Amino acid sequence: MTWIEALILGIIQGLTEFLPVSSSGHLEIAKALFGDTSVAEQSMLTTVVLHGATALSTIVVFRKDLLEIFRGLFQFKWNDETKFSLKIIISMIPAAVVGILFEEQLEVLFNGQILLVGFMLLITGGLLLLADKAKTTDKGVSNTNALIIGISQAIAILPGISRSGATISTSVLLGIDRTKAARFSFLMVVPLILGKIAKDIGSGMINMENANALPLSIGFIAAFITGMLACTWMIKLVQKSKLSYFAYYCFIVGIIAIIAMYV
């Protein structure tokens, strides 16, 4: 992987991790366009680095929220912070179960399955259109809602289904306040990303000896900076009910991907 490819992949990851257009789907399309022939270990290392960058950008953007949560937890009381942390844990369960039980089956889907990506982008677009028309309410996230949103996150493991798009849209359709929906969606993914990174590193599948530090560093920085910008921007867009723009984008990219596989 060249430094230019790493820069492009970093920007794609940073933007699409938070914008509701599917980071996994866009990375698969980008790799196909680049003619990615890297071995599994190198590809996994790149994925770990880029996801680590977006996880860090989430932590930076929501640093005040995270500090309040940790302070509340260390009070060892049944307070708002403890309740919120419980909801985060509940939301993680579906994706964790799917990731553990169907790991091998899921890996096959991330092997240049552009046709699948195209159809899943169409589904993402439809979901975003529904959410954009939902009425605005001031409801918070309940434990039951956390589980339902977690199921959406588990489904979004499929390449082409936007994680942020699925979780935010589900939240809004459940009647949850848009700002709270965006906040919960971004915070709920941090433990999963960090857990997945730790699992991949501990699996022994990543070979650090042949790692090219320069492209990886460029990709990390690009994903981190664009991730912070996209995260902040997305919160404002959700508040203003502008999800339809991304829906049309998903429709266009999805149709192009599908047509490309038949041409």
Give a verbal description of the structure:
The mean pLDDT is 85. 77% of the residues lie in helices and 0% in strands. The protein has 263 residues and is mainly α. The chain has one domain. The protein is built from twelve helices and no strands.
Class by alpha and beta content? mainly alpha
Number of domains: 1
The total of helices stands at 12
Low-pLDDT segments, ≥5 res: none
Q: List how many beta strands DSSP finds.
A: 0
C-alpha end-to-end distance: 27 Å
Share of helical residues: over 70%
Mean pLDDT: 85
In what range is the share of β-strand residues? Answer: under 5%
Largest sheet: none
User: What value does the Rg take, in angstroms?
Assistant: 18 Å
Principal-axes shape call: globular
State the order of secondary-structure elements, H for helix, E for strand: HHHHHHHHHHHH
Key structural traits:
single chain, 263 residues, 0% strand, globular
How is the secondary structure organized here?
Elements: H1 3-16, H2 23-34, H3 40-61, H4 63-73, H5 80-101, H6 103-109, H7 114-132, H8 143-155, H9 163-173, H10 178-202, H11 213-239, H12 243-262
Helix pairs in contact: 1-2, 1-3, 1-11, 2-7, 3-10, 3-11, 4-5, 5-8, 5-10, 7-9, 7-12, 8-9, 9-10, 10-11
Briefly characterize the structure.
By secondary structure, the chain is an all-alpha fold. The protein has helices at residues 3-16, 23-34, 40-61, 63-73, 80-101, 103-109, 114-132, 143-155, 163-173, 178-202, 213-239, 243-262.
